Amino acid sequence: MGRGDGDRRGWLRGAPPPGWVRALPLLLVAGVCVATLVSPDPLDLGFLLGAIPPLAVLSYGPVATGVLGAAVVVMLNVPAFQLDQPGQTDVLTVCFVAVLSVFVAFVRRRRDLQLDTERTIAEAAQNALVPPVPERVGPVRCAGLYRAAQRGTLVGGDFFDVRVSAHGVRAVLGDVQGHGLAAVATVASLLGAFREAVLDQPALEAVAARLDRRLAVDSARVAHAELFATAVLLEFTPGADAVRIVVCGHPAPVLLRDGTATEVDAVPWTPLGLGLMEDAPLTALVLPLRPGDRLFLASDGVSEARDADGVFYPLLDRLPALAADADPATTADRVWNDVRRHCPAVRDDVTMLVLAPVRPQGR
């Protein structure tokens, strides 16, 4: 499942302009023509035509901007329009503005091409770092949703992954200190450690300890870095009849069962990166699963989203109705849309992972 939600940048932040902006120069040309032809008296509207080339720069390239600029100059010299009989100075001024607009349009087009290239590279880097979760991993149906808080970026401080191992399907969802581009290096380090540990470590607790050590080592390399991350790790048995859960300072998973939503009663451990797991090893919670059960994992960007009155998003109250459809992808999309209605200005990274074990027939 993709992480996009339309183009969240907005047209003033680099997204393509809306249709009304593209139509504005043409509508202005048509409006001036109609007004001058209908009016029995000459109208002093030449100044409006001078605004058409700069408006065209917002939406069009240098060729279209030049065509509109030439059309303006022609209109100023057509007797039928009677645009207050502009003098030579007026025509020269409009010509200068039109030529300048063509140059600006050329520069803008080159810049847009460069930005598109950089964004394509960023999308490729993101897919390499946090690839979309497959619809199914082993006996588990999956759906992931990612929304970075920092506008214009595709990756932030949250991460998730689902992998097959010899010990069952293993999943992780976490949130590193901070968000935006500054957290990308930490996310890359943790995901790399998780993917290696999934293959090497026989116990889920050992996978968590590997992540803890990785972050502690990274933090020690930089003075006063104090890197840490919260995370929840899961391991489904090969038969998908139980799941082992380790919670490291992160909101616990929510179990969706028989139309209810219940937070799993897992003992929370310290966040990753503090180096405390070697002194006091943690123990995973074993949760038996029934047919139709689903697990909903989310970052604190969901539970801590507040409305205008400062009320937190009531996840447990709303999740049963939003998860009425058994499709994991539908559940994630519905929750995201509901969070946006509750808190239109979400200021934190939002990550969700919906996991639905599929029991083999006859079990």
Structural descriptors:
6-stranded mixed β-sheet, 6-stranded antiparallel β-sheet, alpha+beta, 363 residues, disordered N terminus, 10 helices
Order of helical and strand elements: HHHHHEEEEHHEEEEEEEHHHE
> Roughly how much helix do the residues carry, as a percent range?
40-55%
End-to-end separation: 29 Å
Return residue spans where pLDDT drops below 50 for at least 5 consecutive residues: 1-7
The number of strands is 12
Helix-and-strand structural type: alpha+beta
How large is the share of residues in beta strands? 15-25%
Name the average pLDDT. 83
Shape: elongated
Radius of gyration: 29 Å
Q: Which sheet architecture does the biggest sheet show? A: 6 strands, antiparallel
Which strand order spans the largest sheet, edge to edge or round the barrel?
1-2-12-11-7-8
Q: Treating each run of at least 4 consecutive H or I residues as one helix, how many helices? A: 10
Explained architecture:
The chain is α+β, with helices and mostly antiparallel strands and about 375 residues long. Helix content is about 40%, strand content about 20%. It is built from ten helices and twelve strands. It has helices at about 20-40, 45-50, 50-55, 60-75, 90-130, 185-200, 205-220, 300-305, 315-320, 330-340, and strands at about 135, 140-145, 160-165, 170-175, 230-235, 240-250, 255, 260-265, 270, 285-290, 295-300, 350-355. The strands form two sheets. It has a six-stranded antiparallel beta sheet with strand order 1-2-12-11-7-8. Strands 3, 4, 5, 6, 9 and 10 form a six-stranded mixed beta sheet that branches. Strand 7 (about 255) and strand 8 form a beta hairpin. Helix 4 runs antiparallel to helix 5, helix 6 packs antiparallel against helix 7 (about 205-220) and helix 9 packs across helix 10 (about 330-340). The longest helix is centred in the first third of the chain and has 42 residues, at about 90-130. It is elongated and about 90 Å long.
